[in-house]
Design a protein that fits this description.
Blueprint (H helix, E strand, L loop, with lengths): L1 E3 L16 E5 L4 E6 L8 E5 L2 E5 L2 E2 L7 E6 L2 E6 L8 E7 L5 E10 L3 E5 L3 E5 L4 E9 L5 E6 L13 E4 L8 E8 L7 E17 L12 E10 L3 E10 L2 E8 L2 E4 L4 E8 L5 E8 L4 E10 L10 E4 L2 E12 L2 E10 L3 E12 L2 E7 L1
Parallel strand pairs: 2-10, 12-17
Antiparallel strand pairs: 1-10, 3-8, 4-5, 4-9, 5-6, 7-8, 9-10, 11-13, 13-15, 14-16, 16-17, 17-18, 18-22, 19-20, 19-23, 21-22, 23-24, 24-29, 25-26, 26-27, 27-28, 28-29
Length: 362
């Protein structure tokens, strides 16, 4: 911007270089031009706001190596080296005449943003609960563009409000690292901050259908696959029922195989002659669940099934055959536990080498 001060009259140099607004990255070098249509008989003075930097080619300001005046045929350029936040502001080129004429440049320094996230590093929620991840700047210059993305993904998340991720109902698939990125322009690599979201859910159990593969069965493998976050405490128990009471209950040793981060398979090997109930129970701080397998020895068909099974003090009576397939007959059993009202259970059993195995989902 060109300004004139003082009284009117006399020949005044006219600036031929434009007024500039520059944005520079910290550490870079800035050059500010100042040329006029006639310089003979005049001296150019460079100032930062009201502080004189140079008169002609002579540096006045005591900051060795910071400033350099490069003279040209009709003016000069002020060179500012290794710029930082202190160099931001207004720079003035003034013609030292009876009526001083001014050319003003505005310099902005781009510095890396400083980020703050809420929560700071991590958050744990139950599946279905809402989640909010907030990112904001608390330092740096020039307002950056704030975006979120999942770690190991390049695409940004679509957010309603800049800098905020809102999940109205969290799912287990939402577990992971979320990265807030702040970018305030070229020559600056984006600054980022990571928040870990942990979505917890109660144990879920899938019990196999007793895969007996040989006619001469010497062992039976019972597999209980548990999906849980946080990890569940798992136990296999063998119980023998007599009438409506548990006659004997014994913990069964098992082996385990980790299938993924949250899924583990627990396997017990039992003798087919070990009749009774085998119960897999998984419990965590979020919840607990059980599944049972009923094994009975003796060659039977669906018409020879017991009319009544006692399960956890509940009497289950055979009602009807639902379906028949190569896997066996599926029967409907109905029973009532004290205080729970009528409950229906779907049971499926296999007949292989005299061993009947019945799957019971509680």
């Amino acid at each position: 911007m060109v300004e004139e001060e003082g009284e009117q009259g006399g020949s005044i140099p006219t600036f031929t270089s434009p007024s500039l607004q520059l944005t520079a990255t910290r550490g870079n070098t800035v050059s500010l031009p100042c040329t006029v249509d006639q310089i003979q008989g005049f001296v150019l003075v460079w100032k930062k706001e009201e502080t004189i930097i140079s008169i002609g080619s002579t540096i006045i300001m005591q900051d060795p190596g910071k400033y350099l005046v490069e003279e040209e045929s009709n003016g000069s350029s002020l060179v500012i080296r290794d710029v930082d936040e202190k160099d931001q502001g207004e720079y003035i080129c003034q013609v030292s005449a009876y009526r001083p004429t001014l050319l003003k440049h505005e310099v902005y320094i781009r510095t890396k943003p400083v980020l703050r996230t809420t929560p700071d590093k991590s958050v744990v929620v139950q599946e279905g609960e809402p989640v909010s991840l907030l990112c904001e700047t608390v330092g740096g210059s020039l307002e950056p563009n704030l975006t979120w993305r999942r770690a190991h993904q390049q695409s940004h998340l679509v957010t309603k409000n800049p800098g905020e991720v809102m999940l109205s109902s969290s799912a287990r698939s939402d577990t992971g690292d979320y990265v807030c990125e702040a970018d305030n322009g070229p020559n600056n690599l984006p600054v980022n901050k990571t928040v870990h979201l942990e979505v917890q859910y109660g144990p879920e159990i899938v019990v196999n259908e007793v895969p007996l593969s040989a006619e001469d069965v010497e062992k039976v493998e019972l597999m209980c696959t548990v999906d849980s976050n946080p990890p569940a405490r798992v136990q296999w128990v063998h119980s023998v029922h007599s009438s409506q009471r548990v006659q004997k209950s014994t913990a069964v040793p098992y082996t385990q195989l980790k299938l993924s981060n949250n899924i583990i398979r627990y396997t017990v090997v039992v003798n087919p002659s070990s009749a009774g109930f085998f119960t897999c129970t998984a419990a965590s701080t979020v919840g607990s669940v059980s599944r049972q397998i009923y094994i009975e020895v003796g060659k039977r068909d669906s018409t020879d099934l017991p009319k009544e099974i006692f399960l956890n003090n509940a009497s289950l009576r055979k009602s009807r055959k639902v379906a028949t397939s190569s896997r066996g007959d599926e029967l409907g059993f109905q029973g009532a536990a004290p205080g729970s009202g009528s409950r229906k259970h779907s049971l499926q059993y296999l007949l292989i080498s005299g061993v009947m195995a019945v799957m019971i989902n509680l």
